[in-house]
What we know:
Oligomer: single chain
Shape: elongated
Number of strands: 2
Number of domains: 2
Structural class: alpha+beta
Amino acid sequence: xxxxxxxxxxxxxxxxCEDGQERHLAALAAMVDxxxxxxxxxxxxxxxxxxxxxxxxxxxxxxxxxxxxxAPRPDPAxxxxxxxxxxxxxxxxxxxxxxxxxx
Length: 103
């Protein structure tokens, strides 16, 4: 498991993620940070928990709007299927390599 250091709302956090997902997690944290900073500039500094909650709600609102406009919502089952397929392909590649080495 990998870790990523991110800064959101002026505070640093160390987050764990799956190996290979570090850039993705850092990009998501940057989105939340940008939203938090924009809100803080508009309304002034409020408590950190409230600021981060408001940022999350603003992002969720944009997601809801995108869904209403027809953008597909991420399907967790599809992600699990993709991971299972990737695992199967990796295993098959290993079997093929092992068979080729014996031949």
